[in-house]
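Reviewer 2 asked us to include a model.

Predict the structure of this chain.
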Amino acid sequence: MSTNDTVEPGREAIDALLEPTMIEFGASWCGHCLGAQPLIGEALAAYPQVRHLKIEDGPGRRLGRSFAVKLWPTLIFLQQGKEVARLVRPSEAQAIRQGLQQTL
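Predicted model (structure tokens):
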């Protein structure tokens, strides 16, 4: 399940998530983010049970700061609202699949 959130959820809402989730922090104009889209899509196709939240990040965006996001894209893998893995600027789908597997 993929969600492209235009309204940034609060950290409390993220911490309360029960289903396996991958948060993708990035920006629509970011070249690294655009380049990672095929890899992310390929990896997510094998894990339809993992919720995908795509969050626009940038100055003044609190959720990214609460996760100490510094580079884009940053993928945060959550199991019952707790971070179990993180991947910054992924370069291969296998690494993303490993993170997704950790959410289950």
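The CA atoms of residues 22 and 52 lie 5 Å apart. The longest helix spans residues 31-45. We have added this to the supplementary material.
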